């Protein structure tokens, strides 16, 4: 069973909303995750001092810092001038970008594929930059809907293209391992801006190019 969810973005972001796209929360370096992990392990009824667990708190801290490294990533640094003035007005699609994120409700992974499309106006971005932009927003505590939206808004902000379409297909460990335990259910989210939102044909073209059934969205 596939759950389908559609997110439609507001067009024409105000200055304040644009700023939030690239504004990054700061993490506190002074709080030790490792010392708390020791308590959590003990609270689970385990012995934090036994061989296999003795260095686990430090490993978890390191892993969590990596999995949330998107908070301190700098979009400008990542793009690093790879914006080019090109007379190209056909759709650009980078599909099947693998991503791994963590749901903010359970701090369990969700993962899948993201397809990013845009209709250039005067600028294009180096194709390799798009998966890196995906990582900036995936490596945070997220919900799938916001992840999809933030990627679309960032492309919009960087390129001011005629349209942006982002489609995200994901499976959530919090659904697969606990709760409903539906191991084959997935969620699809999309964020459509500009021509992809306003023009049905352009949207359908995108959906057929990424192999989605157009009736699903
Ligand atoms: Zn969850």
Q: In CATH, what is the homologous superfamily of the largest domain? A: GTP cyclohydrolase I, C-terminal domain/NADPH-dependent 7-cyano-7-deazaguanine reductase, N-terminal domain
Number of domains: 2
- Report the CATH topology name of the largest domain: GTP Cyclohydrolase I, domain 2
Major beta-sheet overview: 6 strands, mixed
What share of residues are in beta strands?
Answer: 15-25%
CATH class of the largest domain: Alpha Beta
| Shape designation | elongated
CATH level-two architecture of the largest domain: 2-Layer Sandwich
Identify the quaternary structure here.
single chain
Would you identify the regions where 5 or more consecutive residues have pLDDT less than 50?
A: 1-23, 213-217
* Widest sheet, order of strands: 1-8-7-4-3-6
Strand pairing plus helix content: what structural class?
A: alpha/beta
Distance between the termini: 16 Å
Q: How large is the count of helical segments?
A: 9
Mean pLDDT: 86
Number of strands: 8
Radius of gyration: 19 Å
* Fraction in helix: 25-40%
Write the layout of secondary structure elements.
Layout: E1 2-4, H1 15-22, H2 33-43, H3 56-67, H4 75-79, E2 83-85, E3 92-103, E4 109-119, E5 123-125, H5 129-138, E6 141-142, H6 144-159, E7 163-172, H7 173-176, E8 186-194, H8 195-198, H9 200-209
Bound molecules: zinc ion.
Zinc ion binds at residues 103, 105-106, 108, 172, 174.
Overview of the molecule:
The protein is elongated and about 65 Å long. It has 217 residues and is of the alpha/beta class. The protein has helices spanning 15-22, 33-43, 56-67, 75-79, 129-138, 144-159, 173-176, 195-198, 200-209, and strands at 2-4, 83-85, 92-103, 109-119, 123-125, 141-142, 163-172, 186-194. The chain folds into two domains: 33-67, no CATH class; 83-211, GTP Cyclohydrolase I, domain 2. 37% of the residues lie in helices and 24% in strands. Helix 2 (33-43) packs across helix 3 (56-67). The strands form two sheets. A six-stranded mixed beta sheet has the order 1-8-7-4-3-6. Strands 2-5 form a two-stranded antiparallel sheet. Residues 103, 105-106, 108, 172, 174 line the site of zinc ion (ZN). Residues 103, 105-106, 108, 172, 174 line the site of zinc ion.
């Amino acid at each position: 069973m596939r759950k389908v969810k559609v997110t439609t973005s507001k067009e024409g972001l105000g200055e304040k909303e644009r700023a939030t796209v690239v504004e990054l929360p700061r993490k506190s370096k002074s709080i030790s995750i490792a010392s708390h992990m020791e308590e959590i392990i003990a609270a689970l009824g385990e012995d934090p001092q036994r061989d296999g667990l003795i260095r686990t708190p430090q490993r978890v801290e390191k892993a969590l810092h990596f999995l949330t490294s998107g908070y301190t990533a700098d979009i400008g640094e990542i793009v690093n001038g790879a914006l080019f003035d090109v007379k190209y007005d056909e759709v650009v699609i980078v599909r099947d970008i693998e991503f791994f994120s963590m749901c903010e409700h359970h701090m369990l992974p969700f993962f899948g594929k993201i397809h990013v499309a845009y209709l250039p106006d005067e600028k294009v971005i180096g194709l390799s930059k798009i998966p890196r932009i995906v990582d900036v927003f995936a490596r945070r505590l997220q919900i799938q809907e916001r992840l999809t939206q933030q990627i679309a808004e960032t492309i919009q902000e960087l390129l001011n293209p005629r349209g942006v379409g982002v489609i995200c297909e994901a499976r959530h460990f919090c659904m697969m391992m606990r709760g409903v335990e539906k191991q084959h259910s997935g969620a699809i989210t999309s964020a459509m801006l500009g021509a992809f939102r306003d023009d049905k044909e352009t949207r359908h073209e995108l959906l057929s190019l990424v192999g989605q059934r157009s009736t699903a969205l």
